[in-house]
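Thread: cobalt (II) ion complex, take 2
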Amino acid sequence: MAIRNVRVVEDDILRKECREVKEITERVNILLDDMLETMYATNGVGLAGPQVGILKRLCVIDVDDGNVYKMINPIIIERNGECVDIEGCLSIPNVNEYVIRPESVVARYFDENGDEIEIEAYDLLARCICHELDHLDGVLFTDRAKEADKVKVEELLEKQKQLEEEYCDEDFEDDLEIIEE
Ligand code: CO
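Output below.
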């Protein structure tokens, strides 16, 4: 395995559309392993082909949910809900912005063995899949942040804050019961 050079925002390659992977060869597998190593070395949670200068529909993801995803020709077949969170990107150093993404997605891809996989993803994994798949179409998270309706971002943040508080209150009540016992 080898650490590859991560392309940054001035690089035109990040704006190009990627081509489908036609055959899962040894080269593709080496590339996926290199992408993972590069991602871990740079403390990322996802990395897409163009970020290492490869215009192929490939990405790797590890959001610390116990799985390492190597995705070949991934597509999103379903998007549900909306939520907002801060995003960053290894190709856009030192920039973090709010981006509205679906709460959950259903994605389909081929793994490194050529098996077709379908997953339902929530939260950070769903966000990461959307972010990486955008890279395959030359779209960066800053584009999404720019086109996001600021009022909507505020509304979603407020809604999420309320939900979090309600959830914390419930937790607190549970704790009280335990103490009373
Ligand atoms: Co990125």
